[in-house]
Design goal:
The chain is α/β, with parallel strands linked by helices and 236 residues long. The strands form three sheets. It has a five-stranded parallel β-sheet. It has a four-stranded mixed β-sheet with strand order 3-4-6-5, with helices on both faces. It is built from ten helices and eleven strands. Strand 9 (157-162), helix 8 and strand 10 (180-184) form a beta-alpha-beta unit. Helices cover 38% and strands 20% of the residues. The chain has helices at 3-11, 27-31, 44-55, 68-77, 114-126, 143-146, 149-153, 168-173, 196-203, 218-234, and strands at 15-17, 22-24, 37-38, 61-64, 81-84, 89-92, 101-108, 129-134, 157-162, 180-184, 210-212. It has two domains: 3-92, no CATH class; 101-234, Rossmann fold, CATH 3.40.50.
């Protein structure tokens, strides 16, 4: 590159000051993946500005929790942007389904948990994991998850998503020898307290090897699962 181009790139390292945001342009070098943008509360124009800054340094972009207005704006302004409406996410450079390495299984108790499950799946796939969705296998019909046990055992790590009483991660954790990342969702009636009942149930799981992320945090679970999955690549 030319000297001027080099100086311009160096000027953006390790952060780029956009006025409304400080974009971490070294995130991929330190952590293996570029900064992920949390879309909630940000103006559509701010999201476009942040996204363009990230795409100057990376060929992949993940924006989570975007409003419908912001998603439409990003899709219009960013070449190659893809809107995942149910997951409330926008991506650029998302690898195709059935690609990637290893295997991260995303297991959800009910179809009402789909937004969180899809957020987890897209996140893990963005980080290079081969993913598989196992949906609607809640404990109300325990035979549904029991029929998928061999499929779950093939995964390197399993993300289990459930609302209501949050029992599914304990069941899965007692059936497999893989790490289980539990995600409580805010799905449920009044006594679920917006996911608090599921969160406490998962935190008190008697199944060994179950860890828990925050309520509705599909992104956090998918990211952690992908990083665990990638360790298998290093081991050969």
């Amino acid at each position: 590159m030319s000297v001027d181009d080099g100086v311009e790139r160096l000027a953006r390292l390790p952060t780029e000051d956009l006025g409304h945001a400080q974009v971490d342009t070294h995130r991929e070098l330190r952590c293996g993946f570029s900064e992920v943008v949390f879309g909630a509360g940000k103006h559509p124009a701010e999201l476009v500005s942040i996204a363009r800054s990230i795409l100057c340094e990376s060929n992949r972009l993940l924006v989570t929790r975007v409003s419908e207005e912001s998603a439409t704006t990003l899709a219009t302004e960013l070449p190659g942007a893809c809107v995942h409406a149910r997951a409330r996410a926008v991506t650029v450079g998302l690898p195709a389904v059935d690609t990637g390495t290893g295997l991260v299984a995303i297991v959800s108790a009910g179809s009402s948990d789909a937004p969180v499950a899809l957020e987890a799946e897209i996140t893990a796939r963005m980080l290079g994991a081969h993913t598989r969705l196992v949906t609607d296998v809640g404990v109300a019909g325990i035979h549904r998850v029991l029929s998928r046990v061999e499929e779950l055992r093939a995964a390197r790590v399993i993300v289990v998503i459930a609302g209501m009483e949050g029992a599914l991660p304990s069941v899965v954790g007692g059936l497999v020898e893989r790490p289980v990342i539990a995600v409580p969702t805010s799905i449920g009636y009044g006594a679920s307290f917006g996911g608090l009942a599921a969160l406490l149930g998962m935190l008190n799981s008697c199944a060994a090897g179950v860890t828990v992320v925050n309520i509705d945090n599909g992104f956090g679970a998918g990211f952690a699962a992908a990083k665990i999955n990638a360790l298998g690549n290093e081991d050969g």
